[in-house]
Amino acid sequence: MSTAPAARDYGRYEVWAPRARAVDVRVDGTVHAMTSRHDGWWELASLSAVPGARYAFRVQDGGVQGGSAATEELPWLPDPRGLLLDGGVDGESVVVDPARLEHDPTWGGIDLRGTVLYELHAGTFAPPPDGGPGTLDTAIDRLDELVELGIEAVELMPLAPFPGDRGWGYDGVGVYGVHAAYGGPAALARFVAAAHRRGLGVVLDVVHNHLGPAGNHLSRFGPYFTDAHHTPWGQAVNLDGPGSEEVRAFLLGSMRQWCADFGIDGLRLDAVHELHDTSDRHLLAEMADARDALGAELGRPLALIAESDRNDPGTVTPVAAGGLGMDMQWADDVHHGVHAWITGERQGYYADFGSAPVLARVLTRVFEHAGTFSSFRGAVWGSPVDPACPHYDGRSFVVFLQNHDQVGNRAAGDRIHAHLSPGEHAAAIAPILLGPFTPMLFQGEEFAASAPFAYFTDHEAELGAAVTRGRTAEFSRMGWGDAVPDPQAESTARASRLDWAEARRGAHARMREWYRTLLRLRRAEPALHGAELRDTRCEVLAEETILLRRRAPAAGEVLVLIHRGASRAELPASDAEGAVLLASSQAVLDGAPESSGALHLDGPGVLVLRRG
User: Fold this and answer.
1) Catalytic pick from 286, 307, 332, 424?
2) Of 270, 245, 261, 271, which is closest to residue 302 (Cα–Cα)?
3) How many CB atoms lie within 10 A of CB 35?
4) Is position 270 annotated as part of the catalytic site?
5) What's the alpha-carbon Rg for the chain, to the nearest Å?
6) 307 is a catalytic site residue
7) Which pTM does this prediction carry?
8) Helical (H) or strand (E) element with 35
9) Could you say which of 79, 205, 261, 270 is catalytic?
10) Average pLDDT for 528-549
């Protein structure tokens, strides 16, 4: 039987350094020699770790660092399991006891499968009145607006400490930490408690496949990385070599911290295809079993959401059935199908997408590349999704029109709606929110935010210049002619901050009302509650028009007519007879009552109807 990761004693100074011959800890300026426990761990039993104390470790040789530097020349290093850094990624750790932070004791948990997720970046989501960078505390002030919109859970982009004050967080170096510029662990606890009081679940995006290029000191402590496998970022995390048992426990322990000690409801796992693991039990399967045990211990459901490039339904198949046991996985092919169809873009990974038949396939079978040739990858890719499989359903796949990658990894960080008419934007989001999947919005898309979401960093000068050159060269090779904003420029991050005043005026407010309308229908219509892929059909009426059919047992049928063209689009006569109009995007965007309008579309838009 699987067991939950062991609880941590936050009142102890201890660290894993299996090859060290001596380890010291400096606490508030006083140096103490630590004692080896003969299992690779070192401890200081004579002094309790008191919240607020500053501390760092010094690891003496033993083959980890190489060479024979004098003790006084060795660096003082932050705790690999530190929750807060003082002085940046090379600074000291600060003792934090999560039990002393804010919690909502009444929270009973949430089943995240099928909920409406909302991805946000703490630094740009909710700028304070002075226009400066946002924090987790300023984000609390916008939660009521998300609840009113119909959001059910928020997904926080990575919070791990990273170089400088601004960045996306995917170059973080503290798997257990919360970036100080966002308010640190105390602010995260306040945010989670505030979200829970409003009935919102919280998902945290974590990066276990690599650490950032600056401030990564893990190799000084032990064999956290291996040359046996490589990733786009260099050495792989050691999941199957000597010492990997403790590395795996390190990652599992962080899961316990976030879910048990901070009340997080689920983790989004970045790029799991780069977790190279040839052991008999893959790390993800071990995490899935630990999730179940920890959820049982806590008395509330926990979820693991994988970002995977493999297009493999085995990712969301239970461990007992031979899968990896993830609750959900991101479904990029659905995004690509919608994006390419509505915009006409075909470069890069959009090359195999864009037609109405491809759109119909991804809206009903998730993957376009399902054991078929991918021209972008130059290989046969993926495995098919079985709509009759009992091990997963539509809710197992997270779909989106926008997310941090699909916006921020464009040359200029431009959002899709910057190139669409309001009617086209309304058409593009409809299958995302009314399909059988777990939908996710990206901050600001609901009111067609004018702010881009560009890639930005705050590295030291030499590394920052290399990042700037690399990004410019990358997009030059891809043929994207847009000027690439300098990631290092503070203005790039500032331009990515949302202007919430937009959400209350003009076309922005009307688009937000369309999103709210779709989310209300998602809750209200029984036919939209079903998650079985076999109960969802999509008909191609013309290259510019599709008809999405949603059914659920004894719940009738909801029809979603989606049209991207300038011409008129009509329901088939057999469907129009007896149909009740639930919503018209053209009526909502014109400011008319949401259920008013004709049973046809003049130009791009959406009709939602009920039959039976």
Assistant:
1) 307
2) 261
3) 14
4) yes
5) 25
6) yes
7) 0.97
8) strand 35-36
9) 270
10) 97
